[in-house]
Design brief:
Layout (H helix, E strand, L loop, with lengths): L5 H19 L2 H34 L8 E10 L4 E8 L7 H5 L3 E9 L4 E5 L4 E4 L4 E4 L10 E6 L5 H8 L5 E12 L34 E6 L3 H9 L8 E7 L9 H9 L3 E7 L6 H10 L24 E5 L2 H8 L12 H5 L7 E3 L2
Parallel strand pairs: 9-10, 9-12, 10-11, 12-13
Antiparallel strand pairs: 1-2, 1-8, 2-7, 3-4, 3-8, 5-6
Length: 364
């Protein structure tokens, strides 16, 4: 059987279904009917375009890595002359719950644009918002995205144009934000339950009920300095937080530079979510002694073998992964320098402790 081109089939179908009917009508009626059909087609096209435009406009107001959307500075908390917190609220309420989508398996950031010099700067958002009544930070509950709000922890550096610009802006000022940008992904176990976060909302809870996981959680180690602490806090405070324990080593001038974030850190430690070591240069000015304390607290790595059946909280082994985040000099001391923003070979203290390229990642 010979197949006819689709265009010819369509043409013949049109002739059978419509043309003969038009020709059976008087010429004047054919013209009027054709005009009605044409106007109807134009109306349907216009209506379709209208709804399509609305849909595109709604989608363009959702946070996306492909375009900037406007956020306003809803709160600003000065901690000291160098550190401050910003709560950012989108002008258009967000529908997507990024905290639920990302969970603790993704370390992600957003970019803020400085329009005067056309520079963007990456910041790690925290799943927190300012309590209007208590005037303090609180975690965003499970199942909520806080309408898209998040908090940034910012330090002003001497050459940090974007941070200094942000600090000068008044409350209510609108800035452009895009994201999320995922920098690192942890293994995700499909069908696993979320970890309980009740203690974040009620600090009178003496202990949290043991979670009955499907798979055995894994521990990780994080070595952070300065504002690098926010990467650890993101996956510890988010909806469905890290299920294993984090061996957290935090170097800073003083823990007080965390301001309202400080209680969260000690709360996580008190409820067994982290094994915390804080090294303050204000209390120990000798660099060699501080490095020795870090060295003494570096755990040995454990091979990651993938998901296995849950055996209980006391069966968790040593960390399977080490993440390093902080100033370049700190990263170099802990895990070897990055080279041209690439990972570079593993060195420093972690290499001496038996860690390798396969289980260490240097965050930007």
């Amino acid at each position: 059987m010979k197949l006819r081109p689709p265009t010819l089939l369509i043409k013949n179908y049109y002739k059978r279904c419509y043309s003969h009917r038009f020709t059976q009508l008087p010429q004047e009626r054919r013209i009027r009917l054709s005009g009605v059909l044409m106007m109807g087609a134009i109306g349907v096209s216009a209506l379709s375009y209208y709804y399509y435009s609305i849909l595109r406009q709604q989608q363009s107001q959702e946070l996306s890595p492909t375009h900037f959307i406007p956020y306003k500075i809803s709160h600003k908390i000065d901690i000291d002359p160098s550190h401050f917190l910003l709560e950012l609220t989108p002008l258009q309420r967000q529908k997507v719950n990024l905290w639920s989508q990302m969970g603790s398996e993704h370390l992600w950031s957003v970019e803020v644009k400085q329009p005067e010099i056309m520079v963007v700067r990456s910041y790690t958002p925290l799943p927190l918002q300012v309590d209007e009544n208590q005037r303090e930070l609180k975690a965003i509950p499970d199942g909520s995205n806080g309408d898209g709000k998040f908090v940034l922890y910012v330090k002003q550096y001497g050459n940090g144009e974007v941070a200094r610009w942000l600090h000068r802006l008044p409350l209510g000022h609108t800035i452009d934000v895009r994201g999320p940008f995922v920098e690192y992904e942890l293994p995700k176990y499909e069908g696993e339950i979320s970890r309980n976060r009740d203690f974040l909302f009620n600090d009178e809870i003496s202990s949290t009920e043991e979670d009955k996981f499907k798979y055995q959680p894994f521990d990780i180690a994080m070595f952070t300095a300065g504002t690098g602490i926010v990467s650890a806090l993101q996956i510890l405070l988010t909806e469905s937080p890290l299920r294993g324990k984090m061996h957290l080593r935090y170097s800073c001038g003083s823990v007080d530079v965390l301001g309202p974030l400080k209680p969260f850190l000690y709360q996580l430690h008190r409820y067994g979510r982290i094994d915390l070591q804080v090294l303050e240069s204000s209390k120990e000015s000798n660099v060699s002694k501080r490095q020795q304390k870090i060295w003494d607290q570096i755990p040995s790595p454990t091979n990651y073998l993938g998901p296995s059946n849950y055996l209980g909280p006391n069966k968790i082994s040593s960390p399977v992964l080490a993440l390093v985040c902080g100033p370049e000099r700190y990263i170099a001391d802990i895990s070897g320098p990055r080279i041209n923003l690439a990972q570079g070979p593993i060195g420093g203290m972690l290499k001496a402790k038996g860690w390798t390229e396969g289980n260490v990642y240097k965050l930007s």
